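2024-03-11 09:14:02 DEBUG pipeline.ingest accepted 1 chain
2024-03-11 09:14:02 DEBUG pipeline.ingest length=292
2024-03-11 09:14:03 DEBUG pipeline.predict start
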Amino acid sequence: MISMVRKARTRTGTALGALMALGAVAGCGQSAPAPHDTAPGPHASHSASPTVPAAPPTLAPGPGGLAPVFANGPRNGGRTVALTFDADMTADQGERAAGGERFDHPELIASLRRLKVPATVFMTGRWAEEYPDQAKAIGADPLFEVANHSYSHHAFTGDCYGLPRVARSEMRDDVERAYTAFRAAGVKKAMPYFRFPGGCYDDAALRAVSAAGVTAVQWDVVSGDAFATDADAVAQQVLDGVRPGSVVVMHCTRSAAPATERALRRIVPALREQGYRFVKVSELIGAASRKG
């Protein structure tokens, strides 16, 4: 519901409020090598051979070795917009899934394919374990890219909308465990992008995940789709917020975001009518890194 959305500001950035806390109640300078062998960090070197795929674009680490934070692409780089979808499932929601609650949303993914919309799916490791066939299919589809939303969907700071908290000493392990779950599900190329559960982070969290070689990805447009039933309201909130280079946060969990697929069918043609081109987060980060 739109009324459930609010923003919280940390010292290092802006975080989404109750929207991203849905995982708690329902829920689609690198100092060491990255744990995921197909998505190296920003300091990896690569052969010029055309047979070796280029590394995904990342941003340079921030001051003091903090993981860089990306919220939107260049505003003067043309009418591009990235739709991102969080596949949320917390580590302790297995019983609910076994009882029939659906944390996936195949119809949403099918609509993205039918509409030919590139998208970035921020997936928790626990979601990949619950839906390995879907995780593998999303990861294998060139229309999409899979990024990291933690293993457990537990918070990386205190006071993050009721989410359980990951101990500071376990933050990097939680990120790496998600990549391990992706590989086990058959995702061959997970991107070196990380979205904090709840959007909550501070310097300690950025320092911890920096060791995994990731760029932290936030957003500048909140869809308000969590628990919303009014698809038109969700669509209008997105359409009102999008600017060139925007990153839109949405969800691909049926039980927690039932109106998202219907909203998508309005959002896509409306933005295309305005001249927008849909891209993955990697394209926006690449454009930002070139301008930087």
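2024-03-11 09:14:41 DEBUG pipeline.report The chain is about 30% helix and 15% strand.
2024-03-11 09:14:41 DEBUG pipeline.predict end
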